[in-house]
Amino acid sequence: MKSLDRIDFAILGELQKDARLSNKELAGRVGLAPSSCLERVRNLQQSGVLRGFHADVAPEAIGVELEAMIAMRLTLHSRKTLSDFRKHLLAQPEVIQVFRTSGANDFLVHVAVPNAAYLRDLTFDRFATRAELSHMETAIIFDFDRNWMVPHYRGSDGGKTGNGGA
Q1: Looking at the domain that runs over 6-46, which CATH code has it been given?
Q2: For position 149, what pLDDT does the model report?
Q3: Dihedral class, residue 4 (left if φ above 0, else alpha if ψ from -120 to 50, else beta)
């Protein structure tokens, strides 16, 4: 992955705060000419550092009234089994996020559904029917907050700073 300098960190910080900034406004905030800023953003995208821009949609506005985290444990732990199961999870439109974890469970799966009956049917019909699944536990999400700022632990020289970006 590309080594980042202080300008790259500044660009990433500004875009994490507001991904809708125009290139001109972003360039002004980080002290670059607009053409240089645009080139930097393109380089960050091409190198995989900047993975995308996303809209934060209110779930209830599109019919999502219930979200849940589902802990899942598989019977076998081969790379192929884990990969195939992960692909199955990601193919489900209700699945928002999939976390491959260590510990007692292999996956934590964040789902968004219209109601409890839909959640029941999803877990029974599309997850519990999988032969490789040995255990599943569902927890309803009452509320959550997300920090869109990812802390950085590398200095502008690429070395570890250990300061979480402070």
Answers
A1: 1.10.10.10
A2: 83
A3: beta
